[in-house]
Design goal:
The protein has about 290 residues and is α/β, with parallel strands linked by helices. Helix content is about 40%, strand content about 25%.
């Protein structure tokens, strides 16, 4: 089966996990891993037989075989990388909260964005909670939405820690622009518990039309849609409706491709990104 070749910028935890997920794809072919130093991630990719470089974004810009680029660096780095990737004609999936391109949450709005060439994957918390906010909003209308993403401290690498402010701002904006809330807020908590706990996401919403049956059905439907590309995504606490207040708690277990299963926070954004690239690749390949 014909595949589209992929380059990954940033050989850290996210980039390495992406590499293993791309290796399992029916539409994508892992081709190039690039960073700025001869890191363990670069060595790992080389040991698997993939092309590697320490020239950063320049390596994918110069490689005519690379069609899709996953940028797993930082928000600041992607702001510099984005125009270079666009000029080179690459389809860019931004794993950082830089938000250069439109926010994309596969089960919510990907079908409206297939002609774009730059995609922002929001944040791990956004991929986990925007679908729930969207489901509540379409059933009951959300006046105010708030989410709390709690992740294991061990699963938060340097890039995640450096982007905490961007995480909260980008997630909150996506809860409005994609999830449909009139107003929104996002909070992230790094939990140092041992043994590490799986990612949990609490979604609060004040709604205009608190129809319990519609809300429950809508949330259950969206859960099944997300599970189509993130099997470890599940309800921990089903919708609780108290007057006009709705509370839902989601748990995300990672697939364990590279990162431990408790790292659902990194796993969900990677699986969402691969799902986006696979759908775009199918369109390109005429499948």
């Amino acid at each position: 089966m014909e595949k589209c070749k992929v380059g990954i910028i940033g050989p850290g935890n996210i980039g390495s996990d992406l590499m293993y997920k791309v290796m399992k794809s029916k539409r994508l072919q892992m081709h190039l891993m690039t960073g700025i130093v001869e890191s363990e991630g670069i060595k790992r990719a080389a040991s698997l037989g993939f092309k590697t470089s320490i020239k950063g974004v320049e390596a994918v810009v110069e490689d005519p075989d690379v069609k899709f680029v996953f940028d797993a660096t930082s928000a600041k780095a992607h702001l510099a990388n984005a125009p270079l990737l666009k000029k080179a004609g690459k389809i860019s999936l931004d794993m950082t909260p830089a938000a250069v391109g439109p926010y994309v949450v596969p089960c919510v709005n990907l079908d409206k964005l297939t002609d774009e060439t730059e995609f922002n994957m929001v944040t791990c918390g956004g991929q986990a909670t925007v679908p729930i906010m969207y489901a509540i909003n379409r059933a009951a209308g959300v006046e105010y939405g708030e989410i709390v993403s709690c992740i294991s401290s061990k699963s938060a690498g340097p890039g995640t820690r450096a982007n905490i402010d961007e995480f909260t701002e980008t997630t909150a904006r996506a809860l409005k622009s994609v999830g449909g809330a009139d107003r929104s807020k996002a909070i992230i908590i790094l939990n140092p518990a041992e043994p590490p706990l799986m990612m949990t996401n609490t979604v609060y919403a004040l709604v205009k039309n608190p129809d319990e049956k519609k809300i429950v059905e809508s949330v259950e439907d969206i859960i099944r849609e997300v599970q189509g590309y993130v099997p470890g995504y599940r309800l921990r606490v089903p919708p609780v409706i108290d007057g006009n207040k709705v509370t839902v708690i989601i748990e995300v277990e990672g697939a364990g491709d590279f990162l431990p299963s408790y790292s659902g926070n990194l796993d969900i954004i990677n699986q969402a990104a691969v799902a986006v690239a696979e759908k775009l690749a199918a369109k390109i390949l005429g499948a």
